[in-house]
User: Fold these one by one.
Assistant:
Number 1:
Amino acid sequence: MITTLPQVHVPVSSSVVTPVLAWWHAPSPVRVNSPAEVARVEQVPLTELLDPVNRFTVTHRVGYRGVGFEASGLFVWGFTAALIDRLAVLGGLERPWDPHVTRPLPDRVSAGRAPMMLDQSPEREDR
């Protein structure tokens, strides 16, 4: 473990999440610790996630707008995408991308899930 980040309140689930930043010396298996909270764990190269071609603004029919990524066949949005975005910005790893490119949240992704309504709009002042 490198560090823990400040806790984040996720309104849609009334949960408080403590993000943990970690690094492995060598690749090792990862697994789901709590199936009630996490469907699966994926390892995706950071270079692929942060490639500007794979970044966009996600839109949801209820008005949610936030950063999104599509990599390794995954559509990453909401809390996970916001966390990846913040880490990229804070770590100096963000590459210029076009926040005006939008993609709607696919029905297959949003089924049964409400969006996280934190302000993750691409027009943030710290961009």
Note: Confidence is low (pLDDT under 50) at residues 114-127.
Number 2:
Amino acid sequence: MKFENQPSYSLGRRTLSTKDVAPGEAGTNVTLISQLTLGAINRGRVLQALYDNGPKSRVDLARLAGVNRTTITGIVQPMIEEKLLVEGDAAPSDVKGGKPARPLFFNPDAPMLGAVLLLPGKIQTCLVTLTGEIKAHMKTEFDPLGDRDAFLSVMRETLSSTLSQAPQAPFGIGVASAGMIDSDNGVILAVNLAPVLTGLPLVDLLQEHFSLPVVIDHHPRALLVGDRWFGPGRGLQTFAAIYTGEVLGGAFYIEGKVYRGLAGSGGELGHSVVQIDGEACNCGKRGCWETVAALPWLRREAGRLGLRDPGNITCARLVKEADDGSKAADALLDRYTRNVAFGIVNLQQTLSLNSYVLHGDVAGGGQMAAERVRQHVEQLVMMRPNQEISITVNGIGEGHTALRGAAGLVLSSHLKVVI
């Protein structure tokens, strides 16, 4: 088998190690990593090396993932036996002679991964190959204020139509959902804009119906995984994904691992406070970041300023109208990107993540909007010497990125991979 036209990317990496401490040795502060945890971390790094660099030999994978040659065999061989990976044709020997290297890459005939993106009123489903290709993509709508049985009927019908197009049973189903998610117990705790989903034990319901493993996580966290494996997060060891739309959320990748709080908490960034006693938020509190940096605020301001068709204003439209010479659009764009920057400044001051990938509405404004956000962040943050802050947009598109991230959740669960 030949592998052709595969992209090549550099892989940022951090070497992990364990240290032995002699009995009775006092005053030594050492963090020990269990073999199971170390194995999960190493598998994740090998997968990321393949996603970042394309087909590679065992020797190259060991170097890129930062593991020794003995360890690499123990990592890749089970995946070959499970037909997740396949060996390509042997490369010609170099001038030094020796056994020709055979590159490894994802098996195009391996089972696919089911993926669901669940947002207020909208469902997307698809199949995702191990290399991130989207297949059997379907979209449908549901009543966010309606009947739960009606929602479940639409969900099952749409997902069944997608899964039926898989040539063999998928490894499982990954769900990226809006709202507050208990990822440990598979429950959607609350969705302010879609009460029909509040309290829904979706993982148990889907597992019972489809007889497949199901995992669920917060929508911005799936975007983060999609960024890390397939998008601008490739090679980064620390960054954040920020989503703006009808609501605002985010997720963190810190020192080579997706950050999750208790039961999958964290990432409800839209409800961090940026204005003491500010506007009322859907969550019942005041001054949340979401109240000044999401589409409802933008459209209200567009109406107040007399912009054309304010109910359909977006960041992309503001950028276009600003480019066409509209001073009102340019001024509103500047305020909107500054409001987005406020929350990023708080994150930067707290965590010093330095790299941020924008999704959703503000990402629709492209590099111009991202540059405005970056400029405001640098004006507001306390910069350290030699510090650089990167603000980028994911050009793949929010839907596909989230669906790929949801599929990545399935793959990581199936292989017990740390991501």
Note: The longest strand covers residues 134-141.
Number 3:
Amino acid sequence: MGQEQIHQPFQLVADGSITTPQGFRAGGLHCGLKKTTRYDLGAIVCEVPAAAAGVYTTNVFQAAPLKVTRESIGADGMLRAVLVNSGNANACTGKQGEADAYEMRARFAEAISVSADQVAVASTGVIGENLRMDKVRDGIDRLPAGMNATAEGADDFCQAILTTDLVQKMVCVKLELDGRTVHVAGAAKGSGMIHPNMATMLGFVTTDACIGGEALQGLLRRATDLTFNMITVDGDTSTNDMLVAMASGLAGNDELTSEHKDWAAFEAALRYVCEVLAKAIARDGEGATKLVEVKVRGAVSDESASAIAKTIVGSSLVKSAAFGADANWGRIIAAAGRAGEPINPDTVDIAIGDIVTLTQSRPVVFDEEVALEYLKGDTIHIYVDLHMADGEATAWGCDLTYDYVRINAAYRT
């Protein structure tokens, strides 16, 4: 029941970053929003107007920066920069929060000599507290001088967007389009409050491909549905989730449209970048020790498979069993059965890694010691085949540990 190896039309750039695509520079610094000296303000800047796209949280309570970013991208579908702070979500902060987000946009736009509607704003951190704007203003004024197009600049940016994350999350790939080398790169943050219904907690994609904003928006939304929307850590959707993509067009390829011969290759590269970042978020779930991947096949539709896979990977009992290295397939089938999707209760197969535990809904005797050793690893694959139709989907999550409670019991303190 394993997954097939598929040749990809792109290559991983081992030392690549969000500044590898032509035209981008980045940076980060500590401005004082965090109690420690960790970086808490960063930005990505494009030297030319970049085609832009964005997807946002569906939480009814949406942080002020989302309104600002929507307006910026909606103005003409172009961006020159995105400014990000961590340590404070600027969410549920009323009119003052909106004013602060607009001021951040305007001040950074002035600092890099672009119009305000070419700057996006993102925030992450504690909800319900006003920004310390004296600190933010000082940081914005200092930030441009330290930004550059090197890996160091990208690293500083990645540090600046972290909250409870333990690791930075960044990836870059390259491919050939019209004889030109095109790069697609991404960076993200996310560790807790992860159950996106749009994108990641905060995610940023840069590319030097030539593509229009509308085309990029369509690709970004499809990639999101298959990657960021298929992860969960704790079942909570944030007020600040945002994924923004910028395309400088400096690679010099012919403009990408659905009729372009390499459209599928570029879409595959973008999806791969999003998938790597999404899985990195799931693996870095607060307190997590393992990445859990659930692959559902044989569903009545891809949408049905998606709902079942996310229900399984989000089950607290399945997550707890993963932490305890318990091959309890009963928790898997119980989660599948409550997903609210069509399932024939007589035709379900389940495997944990290569260990078959259920065939046609009947238990299979397996070696518990072999299963225990497998489940002690840092990545667990669960396969479910419903044998009903051709729908399939993959979801990612993590185990549920004692540390998750410890971290979130004292998040503000």
Note: Residues 263-283 form the longest helix (21 residues).
